[in-house]
């Protein structure tokens, strides 16, 4: 399969490497002028969850393109959710016959986000990985599981099956959701709760140490669940757990995970190392959630009280 990764960010690089190792032809689209600024290879210092977290140390040459005029089978679009509109608009006149895998966080209505693309060519997914760059060195990793699902009339036929088979052929396990809109929105409030509380206490290590801080992650998430309904989503198992299980018990489990020697703890640590949990970057989740809550009249008192931590500073 000929695959174009849109951008050469962390997720695109991690999965592009995995696809290349599985025998696929992988290229990266970068902005004009960017290829001259980027090194010709990536120094990987990652952990591979497909192999029980095995360490990978490798210098991997990458192919960069500043146009999208080739005949690709698949374009993987994995950018920050606040960059999606521009990326989709760019691809809308260049996608050709390729399948487009939407592969990341979405807080707007997913169908509206991709309305400029042919619905029959869109497949929805979500990665299990993370980390960050330090110069040419990528530190982070992938877990074994990835998520795929359906949004309205997104493709459920041969294109979807080809993407599912791509991941399975590369050694990943695939979980599927029939209502990926609600799945994505719930995942978004999970990120908003975890990142905002992390800002409040100073990061992963403090969350792992503090029973109160870990509990408050889930109290933040709990007050956001009604917003999912107000936006038109359907809260499912995850929302039921957050709403009904005592937050102190969920916080206990979170502390065990964050304080342990496991992939989630490792990836969270690497995200912090790369600066992705700063107020400016991490706060975009909380800012978007709070803006929708105000628009829809859903009170979020806990998140509102923390707004000084993530509000955009005007100089």
UniProtKB/TrEMBL annotation:
Gene3D superfamilies: NAD(P)-binding Rossmann-like Domain (3.40.50.720). InterPro entries: KPR_N, NAD(P)-bd_dom_sf. It comes from the Bacteria. This is Ketopantoate reductase. Coiled coil: none annotated. It comes from Lentzea guizhouensis. Residues 3-125 form the Ketopantoate reductase N-terminal domain.
């Amino acid at each position: 399969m000929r695959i174009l990764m849109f951008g050469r960010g962390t997720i695109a690089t991690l999965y592009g490497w995995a696809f290349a190792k599985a025998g696929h032809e992988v290229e990266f689209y970068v902005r004009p002028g960017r290829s001259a600024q980027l090194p010709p290879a990536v120094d990987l210092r990652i952990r591979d969850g497909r192999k029980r977290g095995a360490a990978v140390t490798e210098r991997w040459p990458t192919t960069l393109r500043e146009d999208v005029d080739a005949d690709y089978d698949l374009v993987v679009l994995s950018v920050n959710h606040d960059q999606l509109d521009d990326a989709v608009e760019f691809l809308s006149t260049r996608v050709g016959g390729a399948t487009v895998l939407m592969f990341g966080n979405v807080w707007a209505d997913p169908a509206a986000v991709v309305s400029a693309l042919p619905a029959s060519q869109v497949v929805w997914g979500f990665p299990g990985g993370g980390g960050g760059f330090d110069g040419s060195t990528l530190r982070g990793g992938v877990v074994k599981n990835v998520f795929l699902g359906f949004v309205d009339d997104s493709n459920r036929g041969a294109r979807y099956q080809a993407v599912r088979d791509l991941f399975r052929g590369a050694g990943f396990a695939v979980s599927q959701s029939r209502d990926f809109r609600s799945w994505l929105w719930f995942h978004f409030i999970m990120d908003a709760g975890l990142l905002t509380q992390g800002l409040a206490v100073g990061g992963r290590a403090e969350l792992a140490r503090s029973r109160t801080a870990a509990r408050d992650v889930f109290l933040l998430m709990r007050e956001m669940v009604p917003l999912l309904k107000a936006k038109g989503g359907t809260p499912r198992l995850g929302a039921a757990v957050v709403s009904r299980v005592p937050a102190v018990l969920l916080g206990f489990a979170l502390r065990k995970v964050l304080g342990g020697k496991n992939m989630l703890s490792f990836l969270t640590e690497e995200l912090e190392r790369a600066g992705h949990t700063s107020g400016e970057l991490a706060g975009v989740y909380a800012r978007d959630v709070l803006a929708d809550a105000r628009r829809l009249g859903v009170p979020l008192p806990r998140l509102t009280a923390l707004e000084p931590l993530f509000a955009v500073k005007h100089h």
